[in-house]
Structures are given as structure tokens and as C-alpha cells.
Design goal:
With about 350 residues, this protein is α/β, with parallel strands linked by helices. It contains 13 helices and ten strands. Strands 1, 2, 3, 4, 5, 6, 7, 8, 9 and 10 form a ten-stranded mixed beta sheet that branches.
Amino acid sequence: MQDNMFRRVAPIYLAVAGLVAATGCERKPDAAPQNRLVVYCSVDEAFGRVMLKVFKAKTGIDLDIVFDSEAGKTTGLINKIIAEAAAGRPRADVFWSSELFNTILLARRGLLEPYDSPAAADIPSRFRDPKHCWTSTAARARVLTFDPTRVSEGEVPERWEQLAEPRFAGQTAFANPLFGTTRGHVAAMFALWGPERGRAFLTRLRDNGGYIADSNGATVRAVIGGRADLAATDTDDVWVAQRSRASLDLVYPDMGDGGTLLIPCSVAIVKGSRNLETARKLVDFLVSAEVERMLAQSDSRNIPVRRELRGKLGIQWPPESKISFDAVADAMDEATAAVREILIR
């Protein structure tokens, strides 16, 4: 497993090998408290760990890293932050998330510390919280993946809502919408389509025998293994599988307003951090163009939110839904309740 992890990040890992060879992210018993941070991270461990090693090598700051599981992406750490705050014992200094919508909800609860990072000055305003509680970078797109040796591109739905049509009955793998980016994707459907159409979509998906997997990665593996013809997932899961020579292609279905949902990562300081100045240094690094570039050039192939960087790397921004990040966050509770009632019993 460890060998596979570093094969996936080889393009960036080799580039920084000389820098990080003698360092690590492990906690040192004799390190001063102000020179150590606790990081909650739901970014894929294969990529997140390498980035954090680079930060350690650059600064000498020790990191205690808590990663989320693949199946419980983001949601587990969100609940942990909320529970620790309620108990008056916040532990994390920095939250680095693979999505944005739950980070917005944390900010609304007053659980994030405002910080306007100078490293984010060239990031478009829509990717920065007006109150400076979070910054988002390095996006991934929601896509449908398929094996072109079994399914032609012309047979793949052009719109997300078509997935629930009877002709795709039993063919589609969908990650559990209570977790991760799929949770935000379903919330975006509710926000854009309205609750009635959103609930109808979930009902038809259930009645047509949609395959509910543990995670986005599991949906991709279902296609590779022939258990599904289509999988709703994120771009990075497809790119990583292709790197392993899987026969996969992808399309960007329309949410109904001109494009698919794009979901950036997000970075925030947790309210109650005991090491604010040190936490700000980590935020400066994680929102930097350097990290966006490394993620874009890794197997994850995250899409930079910086237009200039995309131009330099020759990366296109896919057709994107016009739904706002705040509108998706607004719809999350209602969408999650509907998922529990209709799809996950």
C-alpha cells in the first residue's frame, strides 16, 4: 500500500526528494509546542502527506496529522471539530479539506479563525471567504466515468438528472451521499433543481437499483471490476486509475445550467488554535501557487483556481455549474435528510 501511495505522487515527490529526504511529519517529543501543529486533513493521504512533508522541510515545524478515512471523507473530521469545540477542547490548528461546503458550515458556526493570507492575494474572490475564515484552491470536477471498451461515450448521460432514468437502471455506481464530495454534489442538485426534483431524483435512483458504494474510489473500482457501467466520481479518482492502466474515460455531465459541479479544496484555521502564528504559516503554504502547481502536476491533477497558473500549465477549466458555493451549503441539511429518508436506510 505504501509503495502504491508513492507511485501515485512520484512526479512531485521526486521533485522534492532532496528537500524532504531527511525530514518527516512525525511528532518529536522534545519539540517546542509553538513549533508543532495539529492538522486535520481530508485531502487524499497520498497527496496530502507529500505536501505536508515539503512544508516540514521548509520550516522545521512538526505536524501531527489526522487523516480521514476514504469512506468517511471530510464528514468525520467535521464532526470531530464540532464535538471538540462543544467540549471546550479544540485540538486541531488547521483544517485542510478536500471540499469546501462543510468548511463553509464550520465558518457559519463560528468555529474557524479569520485569516487573510497574503499568499492568496492572486486567488479570485469567489474562492475566498469575505470574512477571511477560509480559502479554497485546487479544484476537482464531478464526472461520470466508464470503460470505453464496454460503453460508448454516446451512451453516457449528458445531464446528471438522466442518471435516474430507467434506461440506466442497475448500471450506475454512486458513492454514499452522506459523505465527501458526493454529499456536496447531491446538495448542489437540491439547490439548483429544488427539493421536489432533488427528492424525485433520489427516489428514481433507488427504485432503478443504483449501486451505492462506500466512496468515490469504490465507484471507480466497481466500473473496473464490471459491477457497474457508470460511476459518479471526482476527476482525481479517474486520473489515478488511468495511471494504473485502467481502461477508463470520463465525461462532464451538465447539472442543467451549463456545466458540472467543480469542488475546490479548502484551508482554514480552527477556532481555539493555540499556535496562531505557526498555523498562519501553514495556511500561507497550503494556499500558495506552489502547492496548486504541485497538485496539478501530480496524479491527482487538481485544477488550479488561479487563471494565470492554468495558462502556464495548459489546463482548461471545465464547463461549470453556475450554482454558488453558499447555495450548496444552504441545501446540505435538507439534502442529507432526504438521502437518509430515501436512499440510505
